[in-house]
Structure formats: C-alpha cells, structure tokens
C-alpha cells in the first residue's frame, strides 16, 4: 500500500495565463511517485486575488494536514508576499533560472509583468500567427489547393493518420502555414502526387501510421465499415507509402507520437524555423 | 550604444520536443536586456546527436567569442554529459526544480525520458483531446449547432473578434469542446440568442472587441468594404453587447488579449477545468 503522504495538493499560480507554470510543474511532478490534486489559478494581479489564493492554500492544508506544492510566477513583490504566507512548499519557476542567469550574464533583470503568452510583445508576429491559423483552416483536408506558394509545409496521408491536428498545432504554436491533403479510397487505383502539389514537392511531407492503429482509430468513428477494415487500411497504407518512396517524399510514422512530437519532428526534418508565438 | 556583450547565442536542447525548454527560456530571457540568436534542437536521444549539439555550441562560441546560453532537459546522464562539455552556460530547466522538490517531498525522483508532450502517458486523455479538436472544427463559425449538449463552452460574437483561434486553442491545449457562432450583418435587425443555443445559455460566453481594433482587423481582410467600415463595426458591436447584457451572457473584450489569455480567462470565468494534454 502507498503511504498516505504520497498525496499532494498542487497549485499553479501566475499573474498571467499560468500555462508555463502548469507545463513545467507537470513535467517536474512526473518524476515523482505521488498522487496529486491540481488547481490552476491564473491572473493573480491584485492583493485581493492573492489573498484568495492564500486562503485556498490554507484550506487545502487544513483539509489534508499536508503542505501543498505551489508552482508560481508572480512579478509584483507585494502580491508574491501575500501568497508566500500560505502553509506550502513554494517553487518560483522563473526565479530558479533568473538567479543563476543574472550571475552568468552579469546583468540585472528588469522584472516586468510575466506575460509570456501575451499579444503586446510582438504584435506583428501575433498577426502572422492568426493569419497562419486562417490559412491552415482554409487548406485543411484538401478543401483548397490554391495559394500553395504561401504554404510553409504540405502534409499528405491517408484519412485519420493525424494530418489535421498536426497542421493546426503547427499553425497555432509555431505560426506555420500548413496545408494538408488526404488520399481516399478512390485515389488508390492509380495513386499519384496531385498536379497542384508537384511544383511544391520540396516542402511536402508524408504522414503514415501502423495499420493496426489506423483500424482502431477508424473503428471508433465508423465501426464495422469497409473504411475501417484491416484490409482497406493495409492497402491504403501500402499504396501511399509506396508512392512516398517512389516520389522521394520524406515521411513519418505517427503511431506512437503526440501532436507535439509529430509537429516538432516535421520542423526538424524540414529545417523550418519555429516562429515563437 | 549597446555594448556588444549584450548579444548571446541561445540553444534550447531536449530529448523531447523542446517545447518546455523554449517556453521557459523565452520567459526568463524576457527579463534581461539582451539580444539573442535562438536555436532549438529537439529529440537529442543519442550520443551522436549530442555530439552534434556540442559542435554547434562550440561553433557559436568560436564565431562570437561569447559563451552561449543553453536551456536544456536531458534525462540520460551520458547524453547530458556530452552536451555539458560545450563552452556554454547551462540551465537545466527541470533539475532546478527537481532538486528542491526532492528535499521537500523526501522522495527520490525516478528520472524517465522527459516526454512532457507525449502520447503514452495517458492515451485516454489524448484521444479526448483529438476528439475535442474534431468536435470544435465541426462546430466552428456556426457550421453546425447540432450536439450542443456535448459542448463544454459556446462562444458568441461578431465576425473577426477572435472566436475561431480561441476555440481551437481551447480544444488543442485543454481538450475542451468549443462551439463558436458568429453574428452577421443580417442578424442585426432583430438580434436574439439563437433558439438552438437557448437551452445551453449557462455555458455560453460572449467575445467582444473595441470598434477601432475590429475596423483594423476587417480592413486587413476586406479593405474599404462596408463590412470593415467604422459605422458597421460600431453598430454590430453595440447591438451584440446590448444583447449579451439583456440575456445576461458574460462577455470578454479581446482587444488587448492573446489567444492564450482569452482562453484562460474564459476557463476562469466558466469554472471549466483544464484538461492537461
């Protein structure tokens, strides 16, 4: 049996979106064998809100008798001080790096409202990103093969191999204009690269997937259909992969990869720069 | 004039996607007055790849005579050691928190391949997320008002106030099923809550925007159109905001907010839980 002390309340607290605190806290906690109950408290920008955070920390401590873990990022010292009065273990996610960096750079930091996901830092790149999302939506799933000259990347593959989520992630996270185009059952008789894509093959990449995994995914959507049958899935994948090889289109098997991993691997393969958003 | 030492090469290095290293490094560097040239090197999973990273660090140092800054997260000690031979300042983004956490928890960490954006940890929640993206795409921009019982949140607003990017971000980042529905010029004569949405008003939120900002955004798309005119924008916003108030739909002005900020504020307003993806 697990000792009860392996349970911890975890709070992610920030004067911004708390997305960075959450991401990092999650990664760090993944290294410990503990059970957690997690609460995210963004936009803690006033003393009142900080007091409410402190009360939540106190309540968790009173309920469990165990000090909660607080991953936080707050710039204004007065607000920070209120939270730090709570009965918890505190991890300042930025300061733990700012302090050594300050020594190495021999520069003083200029703390400012920690808005790592804000619009104001770089309005132009922000508009680029919105435009990339729009472009990608307009070129999802073969809707359009116009304006391919403006694409940063073109993805090909069978239905349900991960093209749409990957394209949207590339646009949303990295400001990349992604086109995706599906091959369907009717294409299989004489599978060729679509004419419109040929001039852009240098920025074209394939996605593929293990047949078993494809069957599972398609069954969830259309159980017992021809479309989801093992034979159909195997045939489509065979033909499409053969085409990728024949046409020298680099391709990636998505079976065990998350959307983030597929996206960053594609950036890596293509040499495309991440545009930080 | 800025002294030349304010320039730094920055490397983000990881055995995973490097998304966490990038996000955190970016936030930390934002606090210092330096100019940077940034390189991201994901999937450093072999000694060979680590040696190539080390050579890149060496090359940067030789070119500039200034030690680069390396934000990194690598689990396997042998791979880590190769990179740390480079002439750089190193910031281990996870260890800087794992070390104090270990003391506070009095538990040993169990280092594992740092896959904070991977599919394997929790396949069910990953499938939920893909389903959320699909649902959200199928309910973008008023395409469908079916199956609203399955929505986590319903967003209303005029054209170009941020509904689509916000909906997609909610789905992608938090696994939330978002519906969005636009009000168009023709709706303005007698603006009411769509009948299909009425039963779900408890999960309905409005987005609004300053008229000047809306004009700018619409002009970029359809310059000199009626649609982008100041009069049209003001009128639409007046009517839609009046409707939000009349119907007691909580709403949010998106003018100075990023997609991340709009999304997290909506979660905050609605009490919806973030599903970590």
Automatic annotation (TrEMBL), chains A, B:
Indicate which residues the UniProt annotation says bind ADP. Answer: 157-164
Is Nucleotide-binding a UniProt keyword of this protein?
yes
Instruction: Tell me which Pfam families the record gives.
Output: Kinase-PPPase (PF03618)
Which reaction does this chain catalyze? Answer: [pyruvate, water dikinase]-phosphate + phosphate + H(+) = [pyruvate, water dikinase] + diphosphate; [pyruvate, water dikinase] + ADP = [pyruvate, water dikinase]-phosphate + AMP + H(+)
Query: Which keywords annotate this record?
Result: Kinase, Nucleotide-binding, Pyruvate, Serine/threonine-protein kinase, Transferase
Protein function = Bifunctional serine/threonine kinase and phosphorylase involved in the regulation of the phosphoenolpyruvate synthase (PEPS) by catalyzing its phosphorylation/dephosphorylation.
What is stated as this protein's family in its record? Belongs to the pyruvate, phosphate/water dikinase regulatory protein family. PSRP subfamily.
In Swiss-Prot or TrEMBL terms, this protein is called Putative phosphoenolpyruvate synthase regulatory protein
Lineage of the species this protein comes from = Bacteria, Pseudomonadati, Pseudomonadota, Gammaproteobacteria, Vibrionales
């Amino acid at each position: 049996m697990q000792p009860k002390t392996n349970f911890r309340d975890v709070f992610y607290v920030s004067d911004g979106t708390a997305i960075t605190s959450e991401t990092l806290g999650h990664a760090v906690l993944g290294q410990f064998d503990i059970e957690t109950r997690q609460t995210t408290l963004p936009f803690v920008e006033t003393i009142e809100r900080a007091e409410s955070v402190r009360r939540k920390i106190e309540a968790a401590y009173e309920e469990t008798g165990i000090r909660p873990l607080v991953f936080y990022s707050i710039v204004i010292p007065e607000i920070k001080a209120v939270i730090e009065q709570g009965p918890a273990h505190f991890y300042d996610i930025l300061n733990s790096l700012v302090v050594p960096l300050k020594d190495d750079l021999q520069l003083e930091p200029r703390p400012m409202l920690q808005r790592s996901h804000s619009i104001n830092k770089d309005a132009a790149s922000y508009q680029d990103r919105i435009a990339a999302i729009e472009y990608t939506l307009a070129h999802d799933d073969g809707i359009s093969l116009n304006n391919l000259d403006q694409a940063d990347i073109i993805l090909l593959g069978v239905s349900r191999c991960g093209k749409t989520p990957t394209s949207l992630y590339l646009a949303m996270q990295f400001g990349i204009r992604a086109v995706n185009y599906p091959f369907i059952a009717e294409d299989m008789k004489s599978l060729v690269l679509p004419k419109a894509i040929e001039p852009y093959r240098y920025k074209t990449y394939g996605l593929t997937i293990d047949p078993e995994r494809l069957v599972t995914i398609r069954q969830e959507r259309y159980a017992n259909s021809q479309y989801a049958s093992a034979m159909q899935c195997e045939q489509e994948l065979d033909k499409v992969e053969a085409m990728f090889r024949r046409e020298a289109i680099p391709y990636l098997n998505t079976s065990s990869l998350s959307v983030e991993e597929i996206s960053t691997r594609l950036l890596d393969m293509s040499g495309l720069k991440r545009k930080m958003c």
